[in-house]
């Protein structure tokens, strides 16, 4: 039962990370487009770049996204298959 509780706690933490509206919007955008940079996200979300960066940091720290640097630009994409499955349930018609 203790092992089961640890698994459930890990799943709950994953859900907490994507539960914020801005992070959910970022994850959904990456799910739909495949990849994106911060400047594009900032324009779509209409929030300051620092806000986008803070949310990207939380998503990256949780292992949900990964970034690939190309010069000064970092392009982000979804990394966690569980999140892709959750987004598919939430946003597929």
UniProtKB/TrEMBL annotation:
It holds the Pfam family HTH_20. InterPro entries: ArsR-like_HTH, HTH_ArsR_DNA-bd_dom, Metal_resp_trans_reg, WH-like_DNA-bd_sf, WH_DNA-bd_sf. PROSITE patterns: HTH_ARSR_2. SMART domains: HTH_ARSR (SM00418). It comes from the Bacteria. GO terms for molecular function: DNA binding; DNA-binding transcription factor activity. Residues 3-93 form the HTH arsR-type domain. Keywords: DNA-binding, Transcription, Transcription regulation. Coiled coil: none annotated. This is HTH arsR-type domain-containing protein. It comes from Anaerovibrio lipolyticus. The lineage of its organism: Bacteria, Bacillati, Bacillota, Negativicutes, Selenomonadales.
